[in-house]
Amino acid sequence: MKRTQLYMEEDVWKVLQIQARESKTTISELVRQAVREKYLNNKSKRREALLSAIGIWKDRTDLPDTETYVRSLRNGNRLKRIFK
Question: Does 5 reside within a domain?
Answer without folding.
Answer: no
